[in-house]
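[recover] target loaded
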């Protein structure tokens, strides 16, 4: 990543200029059997998971990576020994033999890497959440609209077979009028060990990390090894549990029900599980309101994992229940299922159903779309809508009030 970073406000102003530069680079036309050559920006913990995923996709080749922390090069080469390495992401984007780029940098740098990748004429897989803020979401959505590049967002839940089953049941009319969705995500850790807190390696030093690149235009501050490794704990770089976890379920629910941007959001909670210096809350209740007489709730705790994660779509004619990781009270085993239960008051002859559509490989779907030029499962559209829902919730929490969409748009997140 380059040392020539500009302040975030200037970056947003100049982003539109960047879109004009798109499509300058001619792209290789791929046949159905052509090898897709992939580069990656950001190869930390999540990036290495994506790296292993793409290595499993037939006829895809990882050729280069970029990171601002050289330790990541050695870690990545354990899986792909022959990859080229760059400390500046723009050097990677200049490589003519790269067709597509995976972005797995920290959340607060997603927008820069998103737009730089499109401007370089590369197809893009961008990790969730699509952006750190509402203005960045607007900029990235516009950049994608003005580009002919394939863009997949790392919202893997929309590739689940459970989503296909749910959409079919809703289309068939057996769920009826839906006025509420309940959703949740539960985790736990040993006492004294907070969620996401990772050990800081001894080589995370000011001499060994491009700290200015990591700050990405934020106010200059002394090097902080803990913030560099555990950036998920701090508002300046993260959206916390909302942008790490809730956004996945929002993308599933919003796709299942074809939901627009929320009309209003509320959020309560706090740092209750572990007082370990984190800023982002670990205990949360979110309420999202939508214009068509519909409300969605999401709750989460980092102090109990019994119920895993799931969603209940509550309709006048039936209920769709999707659970993953819930502990079965009889067998004690982890359970994952998608089921339909009829509301006998309106469907007295209705029968319970169990979904059986197989999941799709989210990374393989992206690589296939690079070849076919089709729209991938997690398009920029759902990336944008789920990001806005996440940002509205976080802004409501930080402002300690219910916020409408118009109010949320007017808040300068950088000043909070």
């Amino acid at each position: 990543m380059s040392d020539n970073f500009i302040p975030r406000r200037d970056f947003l102003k100049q982003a539109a200029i960047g879109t004009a530069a798109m499509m300058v680079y001619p792209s290789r036309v791929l046949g159905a059997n052509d090898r897709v050559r992939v580069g990656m920006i950001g190869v930390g913990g999540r990036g290495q998971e994506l790296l292993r995923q793409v290595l499993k996709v037939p006829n895809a080749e990882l050729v280069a990576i970029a990171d601002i922390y050289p330790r990541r090069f050695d870690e990545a080469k354990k899986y792909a020994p022959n990859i080229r390495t760059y400390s500046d992401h723009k050097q990677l984007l200049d490589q003519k033999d790269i067709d597509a780029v995976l972005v797995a940098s920290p959340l607060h740098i997603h927008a820069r890497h998103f737009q730089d990748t499109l401007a370089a004429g590369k197809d893009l897989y961008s990790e969730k959440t699509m952006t750190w803020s509402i203005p960045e979401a607007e900029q990235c959505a516009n950049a994608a609209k003005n580009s002919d590049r394939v863009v997949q967002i790392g919202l893997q839940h929309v590739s689940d077979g459970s989503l296909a089953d749910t959409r079919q049941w809703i289309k068939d009319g057996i769920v009826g009028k839906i006025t509420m969705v309940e959703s949740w995500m539960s985790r736990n850790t040993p006492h004294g060990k907070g969620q996401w807190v990772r050990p800081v390696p001894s080589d995370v030093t000011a001499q060994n990390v491009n700290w200015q690149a990591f700050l990405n235009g934020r106010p200059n501050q002394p090097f902080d090894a803990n913030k560099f490794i555990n950036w998920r704990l701090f508002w300046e770089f993260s959206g916390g549990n909302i942008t790490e976890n809730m956004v996945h379920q929002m993308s599933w629910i919003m796709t299942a029900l074809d939901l627009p941007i929320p009309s209003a959001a509320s959020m309560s909670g706090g740092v209750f599980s572990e007082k370990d210096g984190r800023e982002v809350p670990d205990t949360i209740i979110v309420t999202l309101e939508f214009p068509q007489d519909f409300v969605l709730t999401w709750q989460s705790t980092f102090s109990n994992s019994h119920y895993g994660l799931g969603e209940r779509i509550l309709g006048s004619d039936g209920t769709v229940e999707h659970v993953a990781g819930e502990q079965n009270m009889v067998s004690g085993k982890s359970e994952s299922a998608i089921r339909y239960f009829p509301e006998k008051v309106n469907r007295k002859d209705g029968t319970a159903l169990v979904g059986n559509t197989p999941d799709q490989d989210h990374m393989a779907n992206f690589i296939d779309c690079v070849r076919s030029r089709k729209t991938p499962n997690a398009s920029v559209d759902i990336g944008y809508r789920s990001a806005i829902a996440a940002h509205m919730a976080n802004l409501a929490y930080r402002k300690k009030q219910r916020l409408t969409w118009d109010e949320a748009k007017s808040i300068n997140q950088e000043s909070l």
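[recover] notes: The first strand starts at residue 36 and ends at 41.
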